[in-house]
Write a structure and sequence with these properties.
The structure holds 2 protein chains of 2 kinds. By secondary structure, chain A is mainly α. Helix content of chain A is 82%, strand content 0%. Chain A has 5 helices and no strands. Chain B is extended, with a radius of gyration of 39 Å. Chain B is built from 22 helices and 14 strands. In chain B, the strands form 4 sheets. In chain B, strands 2, 3, 4, 10, 11 and 12 form a 6-stranded antiparallel β-sheet that branches. A 4-stranded antiparallel β-sheet of chain B has the order 7-8-6-9, covered by helices on one side.
């Protein structure tokens, strides 16, 4: 594989898409996890439900991971014959692809984590509200999904 | 199929018979009792304590206490079904008469006290041992340390500080002697009377004067005694726990009784706060219209002297809401209940959302393998285990979702992330979409589904208004919007060449329907300018509809995420197989199993939440106006027991 500036940009894109998502999910799940630990300390039986709510801001990390894979795959680096030649301009396009999913994932995961944390407080008060707490949290995820969608459409248009 | 019609009734019974009759009403669970209005100026029964109040709370305690001492192993069956005891009302009744629960509950309470006493004694012993252990080199009985002219002090501190203390004492002419054991422990013998003064002086030097219990025993003797005590207490504790564990065999019976007493208590509370006039008790309540007959039959099997009167609704009074669906639509009630019940005057959305939900769920999961996996696992669980009714409905719903995902997977070529090129010829033939290579058709499909559901929601609003005798309002409000949607669709089809006709006509249709929106909405404004403003401003709603429809594009994104992640799992597995010699294939299989299981879980969760969200936010908002108060009948609450009928 010939290492060109374009190829490096593709790598930068894959790294950006995944890293931003990972950072967002780390912050989001961390925040929700703190609330979960507090709630479970009071009511150990809430463990399963609190864990579910803590897991929700994790999807952005997954979208980032998937995004990185798709970028590498479309650029012919993964699963291709390994002879991908990528111009600087093409590489730049691959890098731009990473931005919607990366940035939307980062911010939405952080805020989804906050909503999840409040949701955990909510179920600590009334366990029957678990599903509604999940819906509140999932509302924020919408923007990560759209970010993923736009990134994907950009990717297919390169 | 619909929202259950409720009747408001007033029930008259003889006071002497009402307790018995209430018990049978509790058995059918058909009435929600409400307070009798105060204007009637009826007398209130004096609220008296339930005779088994004490037993009831102690039974509840016994259940939670014994549950932590059952020796039964946690089986898979228990994990799935939960810890329910199946019973009948008859069995509970005969248990209450035959099973000596009062003495057993007393015994359990005593055992609990004894266990707690033992545990705290063990802690005391441990604490005493901790403080005394470090002085085991003191070989005289502790009580002799402080008698006589020369007193012996046990000091804890740095050796040099002890020396300072000793020299200070010597300067004052006190005879002293010290003996050190290790760096921190020292014995000081001194001829002093002022013991407090010495302690103060020592603490200034950061030396602690330790005082041990004043006993006629040496440290060794005390330690031996503590060991002995500990052994005895442990024996007693073990014996008590063994007794409790033996008692735990009766846990199912105690659970049945705990529920039985709880029912009795609730009935008693209802009766003892009821209203009456001379010899007649009066109860108000809500009954589903279809259950009035059952209620009358139930009461008449106990007494013939009763009267049920239907009450008119008061102004602004809305009955509690209960929804009822049959057959395959029933599981979708879980979705409706998740959102909260619709208002009493609304339409039950369950039947209408079911088809949409299934299709969306299938599109979000989009995989033959995952769909079959989900359907088979849940099918087995449902077939094999007895589940609580709510869980059963939810799992049935997910099982349907699995089937739907498998069917959609066929159309989309989703087979555990395997490239369709590698699949047999028939798989390629059934495939109609390829979301990875050309996502745009799938995006269009998602948006079309959105348009259909939003329009259907508007249509249901007209139905809802018609149900409440406001059909004209409904037609005026939703009709022009539906027309606008239709003409926009026709225009789009015409542009794509799928519908023939002069393009201008379609533009005219759009403009006319938009004009109709302005005209019909104008009726809500006050004054000429108000009307113009209201009418024109209502066009702004189109932004709302536009964003609602775009929101359906998540269907494509979630489906893509599933297939892309499945593809990534396969890719990693193959890379690992090629990279690691000999055991590569084994690790590949492990990665495949773990990876795909993870993917199923994550995406089923996502598919469920987002398909439900599309119902709640985009669909329900079009035709559900109120939120209903759930119908909560007076019944035998199943807390530990499931009643078999």
């Amino acid at each position: 594989m010939e290492i060109t500036f374009g190829l490096a940009l593709v790598f930068a894109g894959a790294a950006t898409a995944s890293l931003l998502g990972f950072i967002g999910s780390t912050i989001g799940m961390g925040q929700a996890g703190q609330a979960a630990a507090a709630a479970v300390g009071e009511k150990p039986e809430l463990f399963g439900k609190a864990l579910l709510l803590q897991a929700l801001p994790g999807s952005q990390g997954i979208y980032g991971l998937v995004g990185a894979f798709l970028i590498l795959n479309f650029a012919g680096i993964l699963g291709g014959d390994g002879a991908a030649v990528i111009s600087t301009f093409e590489g730049l396009q691959y890098f731009i692809v990473s931005l919607p999913i990366g940035l939307a994932g980062l911010l939405s995961a952080v805020y989804q984590g906050r909503v999840s944390a409040s949701g955990i407080v909510m179920i600590a008060k009334d366990e029957t509200l678990t599903a509604r707490a999940m819906i509140f949290s999932a509302m924020v995820e919408t923007w990560a999904i759209f970010g993923f969608l736009i990134s994907f459409i950009l990717l297919t248009s390169i | 199929m619909a929202i259950v019609e409720m009747k408001k009734i007033r029930l008259f019974l003889y006071r002497s018979e009402s307790s018995k009759v209430l018990e049978s009403i509790q058995g059918i669970g058909a009435v929600e009792f409400i307070a009798v209005p105060e204007e009637l100026a009826l007398k209130k029964e004096e609220k008296e304590e339930f005779e088994f109040e004490n037993a009831s709370s102690k039974l509840d305690f016994a259940v939670s206490f014994l549950s932590s001492y059952t020796k039964e192993k946690a089986s898979l069956k228990k994990m799935i079904e939960g810890d329910w005891v199946a019973s009948t009302h008859k069995e509970a009744e005969s248990l209450a008469n035959s099973f000596p629960f009062i003495s057993i509950v007393e015994e359990i309470t005593k055992a609990e006290v004894s266990i707690n006493v033992c545990k705290s004694r063990l802690k005391e012993i441990e604490a005493e041992r901790e403080t005394i252990k470090e002085w085991s080199f003191v070989s005289v009985p502790l009580s002799t340390l402080k008698t006589g002219k020369v007193k012996t002090f046990l000091l804890k501190g740095d050796a040099q500080n002890i020396q300072i203390l000793e020299s200070e004492l010597k300067e004052e002419g006190v005879n002293t002697a010290t003996e050190s054991h290790g760096d921190r422990h020292h014995i000081l013998a001194a001829e002093v009377d002022d013991m407090e003064g010495l302690s103060r002086r020592a603490s200034m030097l950061k030396v602690e004067v330790v005082s041990l219990p004043d006993r006629d025993e040496t440290v060794h003797e005390i330690l031996a005694r503590l060991d002995n005590d500990e052994r005895e207490v442990n024996e007693k504790l073990e014996k008590t726990i063994a007794e409790v564990e033996k008692r735990a065999i009766d846990l199912p019976k105690i659970k049945i009784l705990a529920d039985y007493m709880h029912w009795k208590k609730e009935k008693h509370n209802l009766y003892s706060s009821s209203s009456y006039i001379s010899r007649v008790s009066v109860f108000d309540g809500w009954v589903p219209a279809e259950k009035v007959k059952l209620l009358m039959e139930t009461i008449s099997s106990h007494t013939l002297s009763f009267e049920i009167e239907e009450l008119p609704l008061e102004k602004d009074e809305t009955p509690p809401v209960e929804i009822k669906n049959k057959g395959i639509v029933k599981p979708f009630e879980s979705i409706t209940r998740l959102y909260g019940l619709p208002g009493y005057n609304d339409i039950d959305p369950t039947m209408f959302l079911s088809a949409f939900f299934l299709v969306f769920f299938g599109l979000c999961l989009t995989d033959v393998g995952y769909g079959i996996f989900l359907a088979v696992i849940l099918g087995l669980i449902l077939f094999r285990y007895k589940l609580e009714s709510g869980t059963k409905l939810l799992l049935t719903l997910l099982m349907f979702g699995g089937i739907s995902a498998a069917l959609v997977g066929l159309l989309f070529g989703g087979y555990l992330g395997i490239n369709v090129e590698l699949l047999p010829e028939w798989a390629k033939k059934v495939q109609k979409f390829d979301p990875i290579a050309s996502p745009i058709p799938v995006l269009i499909l998602s948006l079309v589904l959105g348009v259909v559901q939003v329009m259907f929601g508007l249509f249901l609003k007209i139905l809802r208004d018609a149900k409440n005798g406001e059909m004209t309002q409904g037609l005026l409000d939703q009709g022009p919007w539906l027309l606008t949607f239709l003409s926009l669709i026709a225009w789009g089809l015409n542009k794509q060449g799928m519908l023939s006709g002069t393009p201008e006509y379609f533009i005219y249709a759009i403009l006319i329907s938009a004009g109709l929106i302005v005209v019909t909405q104008a009726r809500k404004g006050e004054g000429v300018f108000g009307k113009i403003f209201k009418g024109v401003f209502s066009l702004y709603d189109s932004v709302g509809y536009f964003s609602d429809i775009l929101s359906y594009s998540r269907i494509l994104a979630l489906g893509l995420a599933t297939s892309a992640l499945a593809f990534a799992v396969n890719l990693i597995a193959v890379l690992v197989r090629d990279m690691i010699p000999v055991i590569g294939p084994v690790i590949m299989v492990i990665i495949l199993i773990v990876g795909h299981t993870f993917n199923v879980i994550v995406n089923v969760l996502g598919a469920f939440i987002h398909s439900a969200r599309l119902q709640f936010v985009e669909f329900f908002s079009k035709f559900i106006t109120g939120s209903g108060r759930e119908f909560k009948p007076f019944k035998r609450k199943e807390r530990y027991v499931t009643i078999e009928r």
